[in-house]
Design a protein that fits this description.
Layout lengths: L13 E4 L2 H10 L10 H6 L11 H6 L7 H6 L6 E10 L8 E14 L4 E11 L5 E12 L2
Length: 147
């Protein structure tokens, strides 16, 4: 069983810079058809200062943490037992190519279901930009299978 004393634990804060080429690749890979995500001239014409960050891209940047396995290691969760349960995004401001985003992750909850056969770890992440503007909240649920 995952020790619930980890609820509230904060993982190391880290920052990542939004790369324009990576945005273009992500937009194409996820089927974005709006040229503002892949063409800088179209982004400028739409009034953006640079290519905007496509929906869900912040999850990719969150995985750019110095140790993307820190949560799993802290909680001693074997990789074969992990399932991706849920992911949510709440946006407060737009992000653009060239922004440096800071990610502050914490374990918001740990609980079990099915008599302990399934455990759930809820991670909340606050994202701010280089100006200190709160741009997004990310929520992810990791499911751990037992048995």
């Amino acid at each position: 069983m995952i020790d619930t004393r980890h609820i509230g634990h904060r993982l190391p804060v880290f920052s990542a810079t939004v790369d324009a080429d990576r945005l273009k690749f992500f937009a194409l890979a996820t089927g974005q058809t709006d040229p503002v995500y892949t063409d800088e001239a179209a982004a400028f014409a739409a009034g953006h200062p640079a290519l905007p960050v496509p929906p869900t891209f912040l999850f990719c940047l969150e995985m750019a943490a110095p140790n993307p396995g820190a949560l799993r290691e802290l909680l001693d969760i074997p990789v074969p037992k992990i399932l991706h349960g849920e992911q949510r995004f709440t946006y407060h401001a737009m992000c653009f190519a060239g922004d440096t985003l800071t990610f502050e992750q914490r374990i918001a909850d740990i609980y079990s279901k099915k008599g302990g056969l399934l455990e759930f770890v809820l991670r909340d992440t606050r994202v701010t930009n280089q100006h200190g503007t709160h741009v997004a909240d990310l929520n992810a649920i990791t499911v751990v299978r037992h048995g």
